[in-house]
Amino acid sequence: MQWGxxxxxxxxxxYGLYVWTSFVVTALCMVWxxxxxxxxxxxxxxxxxxxxxxxxxxxAA
Amino acid sequence: xxxxxxxxxxxxxxxxxxxxxxxxFACVAVVLMGVGLYMGFFVAPTDFQQGEAYRxxxxxxxxxxxxxxxxxxxxxxxxxxxGLNARLSFMMxxxxxxxxxxxxxxxxxxxxxxxxxxxxxxxVWDARLTSELILLFQYAGVMLLRTSIDDLRRADRSxxxxxxxxxxxxxxxxxSVQWWNTLHQGAxxxxxxxxxxAATMLTAMLLMTLAFWLYSVAVILSRVRCIxxxxxxxxxxxxxxxxxxxxxxxx
Amino acid sequence: MSRSSMWEAVGGIVRxxxxxxxxxxxxxxxxxxxxxxxxxxxxxxxxPEPAVLRTIGPGVLWVAALLACLLSLARVFTADYVxxxxxxxxxxxxxxxxxxxxxxxxxxxxxxxxxxxxxPLLGLQFGLSGESLxxxxxxxxxxxxxxxxxxxxxxxxxxxxxxxxxxVALLVLPLYVPVLIFxxxxxxxxxxxxxxxxxxxxxxxCLVLSLFLAPWATAAALRIALE
Lengths: 61, 251, 227
Hints:
The complex is a heterotrimer of chains A (61), B (251) and C (227). Chain A contains 2 helices and no strands. With 61 residues, chain A is mainly α. Chain A has a domain of 40 residues. The two termini of chain C are 25 Å apart. Chain C has 9 helices and no strands. Chain C has one domain. With 227 residues, chain C is mainly α. The longest helix of chain C has 30 residues. Chains A and B meet through α2 of A and α2, α3, α6 and α7 of B.
């Protein structure tokens, strides 16, 4: 373990801005991708359910 | 009302299988990412040349590897789709593109973040950077071509052809820029991280790569599931027996 | 199928396309005119210093040639697609990839060759010397057919697609990068005294590679578009 304190850890030997930007943006991209997929799936299922249940009524009529 | 079930056989079988696999891939990815980050930040020593800035490689290198790897995988699925006329392969290719593009973007961004403190420039016209940039353009091309074509069958096949053409292009660009840089002496920057990379650094990097790989598998599989729902007329409604029952009743 | 019937078919396509181009000369003239304007804009934007112009000259000329070639791509298949000729082309017994070579050759004669012939004049605007002008012509002579080859893949892919004009640029320009590097590199190489042979042979290699691969990709894309 090479870090004396938390502030030393976040400073990253003076390169904190570069290191943390890289890691945070990567994490944000991944989280965003997962959330976007979640929403896409929910939307697709909702639309599909509406189509299946509503659409069959029309054909029956 | 008759339904041609055999037509849907492949995606129908795939949908629940993918659903069972995704949590496993996601869990292992999260665990590996945790271990990799711990190794990278707390076990791996400070690099004596680059200081702490080198720690960017723990996201940069995995992202760059995944961006190239995913493009090849996408092209393979595209090729299988064209050769065997299998719809699931095209769906795989379609699902891979956004994740691959994201990793390409991240590789470029983290590369700039690494380049600024180590070489003093956000961007240099090096072979690796240029081919990564062109790779991003090609991912964009594949996705834009797909969204511009309304006919699904043609969208699948046309973007598959372009993906395959791009696979030939990227290595050519890599070597041409390398050649171009040797001509323009002085512009070349040594990008090697040194062969004497500490074992813990390498382990952390490989763990992160494996984590990114499994993350990609989980995300891509769940995107294929979305595509299956969007495209097929009857997906499997796991966990929603009432809907299945209601549909059956109406039929 | 006999060899001669194949060459007859290709020759027929080339003749037909050239004849059509002769009837609509303004189309071909437009992309050449575009090239001249774009190239002339650069000195006005960058400044008239001869040393700067000589440095950027090869790159500017090559990029302008790339863009001029891009502009003319829409014409390769669109008319044939609209009037149904393309569907006939797919149905004839001769392999489609071979017929595509005929289309590409005609496109090169209409839009590539004028660029090659005009380039020494444009090179003079940038103060290129005699030897560099020769290398410029040589590099364009080897490079522009490759541009036509690669470009027709994109043209076939976006056939009848909405927003195809911009889309074809986004698809094709990344594929043009190696040709740009070798083409401009040949001219800068000759100016720097390194010699242009290596870059020119790499351009030739690109041409051969595209000659073998691009017609197949174009034929596949055309079949997909016409399904």
